[in-house]
Amino acid sequence: MGKNALMTQENTSLDRLDRRILDELSDNGRMTWRELGEAVHLAPTSVADRVRRLERDGVITGYRAVIDPGSVGRSLRAVVNLALAPGASAEEFELRLAERDEVVFAAYVTGTADYTVVAECTDAEGLDDLVRWLRADLGVARTESSLILRVVVGD
To answer: Can you say whether the dihedral through the CA atoms of 135, 138, 141, 147 is positive or negative?
Structure first.
């Protein structure tokens, strides 16, 4: 059995307490062991052991700062669904897409689009620049953009 299969098997055996710990950490990854222990009714050393196990097993893959895009001058957030032109290199597209700071998420997807991209831009002109670059430089044949008006669930 490969490592990924083993991790998947182990991950499905998370108990209720593990899930509560994950919920708490997803809301605040900077909690102290004491704060996390109080939140899930467990001693700080016990909660630390569980978190270390979750990290070791690949359930927790990292921690990050969540930054308000508006505070760094990126007040327009958009979802761009796009289709590559026939013959365009997906590998080159993915490498070049990662170069753009305004791209905060990208996924290869099923359906009528090949990729879904979430971009945080300074304004409509910034989004226009990104879309023009996608078409001119990366072999994108078609784009469909939607502005995000309000986040309901998630970051």
So the answer is: negative
pLDDT (0 to 100) of residue 12 = 57
- The model's pTM: 0.71
* Dihedral of alpha carbons 67, 68, 72, 76, sign: positive
Residue 2: per-residue pLDDT: 44
* CATH class in words for 3-56: mainly alpha
Is 88 within 8 Å of 142 (Cβ atoms)? no
Q: Cα 21 vs. chain centroid, distance in angstroms?
A: 20
For the chain, the domains span 3-56, 69-147
CA distance readout (Å), 34 to 14, 41, 81: 22, 10, 44
